Known about the structure:
Layout: E1 4-9, H1 18-27, E2 35-39, H2 42-50, E3 55-60, H3 66-73, H4 85-91
Antiparallel strand pairs: 1-2, 1-3
Amino acid sequence: xxxxxxxxxxxxxxxxxxxxxxxxxxxxxxxxxxxxxxxxxxxxxxxxxxxxxxxxxxxxxxxxxxxxxxxxxxxxxxxxxxxxxxxxxxxx
Length: 92
């Protein structure tokens, strides 16, 4: 089973040197909070080392498509009633 890097761009490339901008573009990142997946390889690891201040890197076992990521972000329809002592203690 192959592993993947889950790469999220956290910071903008505004004001960065051209070399950093080119590495971010080579990874396929265009805007902040964008998530991409790459297979684990030495070339990708080297590129990530050059932009480590701008990205967040997680090691995952499965690749997710854009539609799967969007489905995870959506709220479940409807509502849920929570019973417990939280409401009682907060209003007393």
